[in-house]
Amino acid sequence: MILEHLIYSTAIAIISGMIYSKLTSRDHSWIIIASAYTPDVDVVADSLLRKIGIVVLINGNPIKHGDFHNVAALLMYAVLVALLLHPLGIRLADSLIFASIGFCSTSV
């Protein structure tokens, strides 16, 4: 699963980075590769939260793999990344687009 995410996200990052760089002269395709692993945080989230004494239930069930593979998680993640990278000089739209592409690259 980890190698698969790396291969898919790298291929998508190369293609989208080349297109976006040609159009805007900016290339932040590394955000795609970094964002590819985000939907799978749910694999370890439940066990880590339980170790510190927090039980999170989604629809009455503990967190399981696939719970973060949805549009709401995508939007929250992309906006958070955009707001965090903006002080580093990356435009909001750029980081929002690339974080969304990275999140979606392995969620489907």
Describe this structure in words.
By secondary structure, the protein is mainly alpha-helical. It has one domain (2-105). 63% of the residues lie in helices and 4% in strands. The chain has 5 helices and 2 strands; from the N terminus they run H-H-H-E-E-H-H. It has helices spanning 2-24, 30-35, 42-51, 71-85, 92-105; strands at 57-58, 61-62. A two-stranded antiparallel sheet has the order 1-2. A hairpin with a 2-residue loop joins strand 1 and strand 2 (61-62). Helix 4 packs antiparallel against helix 5. It is elongated. The relative contact order is 0.20. The mean pLDDT is 88.
Radius of gyration (Å): 15 Å
Shape: elongated
- Catalogue the unreliable spans: none
Structural class, from helix and strand content? mainly alpha
The level of helicity is 55-70%
How far apart, in Å, are the first and last alpha carbons? 13 Å
Largest sheet, strands/sense/barrel = 2 strands, antiparallel
Mean pLDDT across the residues is: 88
Number of helices: 5
